[in-house]
Amino acid sequence: MVNLITFYRLVAAPLLLFLLLTGQFTVFKWLLALSFFTDAIDGRLARSFKVISLPGARIDSVADDLTILVAILGILLYRPGFLRGEWLLVGGMTLLYVMQNCMALIRYGKLTSFHTYAAKVAAVLQGVFLVLVFFLPEPVAFLFYLTAGLTIIDLAEEILLVLILPQWQANVKGLYWMLRQIKKRGSGR
């Protein structure tokens, strides 16, 4: 059941793209909101029903990235002025995202699925901001900067985790917890 919710986002991403390209904006924004809602609940459901798996974590990460990518494409098509005005910040986040993924591919041969606490909070803020962009007359600047700041912190943390973790790992709480774990192993506790 939980994996079906995640799988929905994988299937929804191309449908959302089709809706964008065919000008069906109203349907697009409601399905996008549904996709972000399912993103918010699938991890919680997986933990509640104890159905956490590595394939599920990987699918979730891909579905998250595709949903955000389609939302950004929606902004490019329906709110291009906003992104032009924030090109430096958006470009910086994009660079960090690409850097983190390239480093993971080089180090592990696959993308990460850390699902850190910072990533979870950033994803919720991204979802709220990206949905509101399509439902409100103007983007909420404060929410954008808050989301961008936390996204940058999350990406920097994930880059550091890629540098620290010698082997691929899913569902890492964050850098603080990883360093504590390494310290405990080093002290023999």
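[next item in queue]
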Amino acid sequence: MKKMLILIFLPMLLLLGTVQGQEAGILKKNILNILEGKKAKVGVSIADQTGKNIITIHGKDRFPLQSVFKFHVAAYILSKVDQQELSLEQKIQITSTDLLPNIYSPIKEKFPKGTVMSLKEILEYVVSKSDNIGCDVLLRLIGGPQAVESFFLKHKFSGISIKINEERQQASWDAQFMNWSYPVSATEVMSAFYLNGNQLLSEHSHSLLWQMMTDTETGPARIKGQLPKGTIVRHKTGTSGTNSVGITSAVNDVGLVVVTDRKFFFISIFVSDSKENMDTNEKIIADIAKVAWEFFEVHDTVQK
């Protein structure tokens, strides 16, 4: 009887997988249509709510992270909080010498002579407001960028390089390429830390991290740009400058998009080597996120 049931249901399961594969193929075609004619290299990785990657474009090519790496920094710091090596309430002094010129920092704008803040407060500035000076203050606290990279390598994540802080990253055009990720790796990290299957963070740290991601203020025209009003997006952006010949190396957005109470997906989009203007670069991300949202609104990719 058991063998008979297997023989009956196996073709159905195979057909389901084929149908889902065809549907994902249509989604990929729609994304490629968005990219047609664009003077940019775009990396895309989209995974369903189980973390299974269903769409990849340039998925294992290196793309500069820019401020996306602040997610990695925050995740590592919260793991140290869980181990009681750091405390969210500990006070950290930010001096006037920390407030470097020509580096984006809402902390610097609010406290031009320096201030004392809790670790939690700085984390919120770093993740939700993408504060560069706050990021570097935290990196000094934990032993530098390579301590973050080592943490991810220890947990068997690959396709990630975190070598320098924001000060160095902003100092020269070439330096930014030292911090990079594969799009598939960005999605893998996001999904692992959200699903928490490996118990990477405590419940409290997990909740705090993803609330900060939900509160992200940067990049409203990117993943969120064309989604229905009120859509919950938990994400982290990254942005480079444009060089003297009009090339922008990084307009990024990675995160999680909630479709319904029971359905969400992970998405990583990296726009690089672009000769387009900022509005076009951001619209590329918004257009991709929109067709992905429409796909998941209709289809349930999780086999039950």
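[queue empty]
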